[in-house]
Amino acid sequence: MSTAIAIGDRMVGTGHPVFITAEIGINHNGDLGIARRLIDAAALAGCDAVKFQKRTPELCVPANQRNLVRETPWGMMTYREYRCRVEFGPDEYADIDRYCREKRILWFASCWDAQSVEFIERFNPVCYKLASASLTDLPLLERVNATGRPMMLSTGMSTMEQIERGASGIAGDRLLLAHSTSTYPCPPHELNLRMIQTLKSRYSCPVGYSGHEVGLQTTYAAVVLGADFVERHITLDRAMWGSDQAASVEPGGLVRLVRDIRIIEAAMGDGVKRVYQSEETAIRRLRRHEAS
Fold this sequence. Notes:
The longest helix is centred in the C-terminal third of the chain and has 18 residues, at 251-268. Strand 7, helix 5 and strand 8 (128-130) form a beta-alpha-beta unit. With 292 residues, the chain is α/β, with parallel strands linked by helices. The protein has helices spanning 32-45, 57-60, 79-85, 90-103, 114-121, 138-145, 160-168, 195-202, 217-224, 251-268, 280-286, and strands at residues 5-7, 10-12, 19-25, 49-54, 69-72, 75-78, 106-111, 128-130, 151-154, 175-179, 207-211, 229-233. Helix 1 (32-45) runs parallel beside helix 4. It has an 8-stranded parallel barrel with strand order 3-4-7-8-9-10-11-12, surrounded by 6 helices. A two-stranded antiparallel ribbon has the order 1-2.
């Protein structure tokens, strides 16, 4: 039985509703208006939270890539300039914080470096998410762990040994593990959804699913397999410019995703066989011989 963990005013774990996060990430393309529209879509769909990504470009962009010139919607620019262009600063995040409170939806972020953790801490986040790429960054894990907040640890492109090493330093009452495959978009045969059950058998913490596939079917399957929380990237339009857009869910799909997850939860039941009152009429009409 997994330990339930509080994320804001929600409990996450066995016996509680699936915690649904709409990952905005950097699909806002540095535009606060787009970020607000994505928050609107997540709130309308009934998601529990939205998630952003926060980086310090000077620390996160590899030296051999900083001056590589690439084509962007804002013209030709170096990779470092592009990374700076899509990052939100204090004013934008203050607006996001106010707007999410107004919409009554939680928000948090994946921080890719210690300086970004310091930045996000000023907003008193309900938790942190560690991206799969950061699972082996032990100094970053230690810094996030030092905040004392719940930590969702994504496990894409990782071995079981790496997962164990990353999870070992996090207090059990604050650890959440997310099964994931870090391919964008991910083909179904590489999703390996039974890993949700494998992680549940090894760890007494909430286990969830962070999906990067096209479509919704496999996210539903993750819920049936026991995911305590799910996360999907969202976008206004999958044809928009950006590396994560194609593996994201559009607003209409997000509404269906949340609606259907709630229906699946209601349908799963508790596994105890019972005769429902609604069946009594069928018993009287169809049963000719009723065993005592």
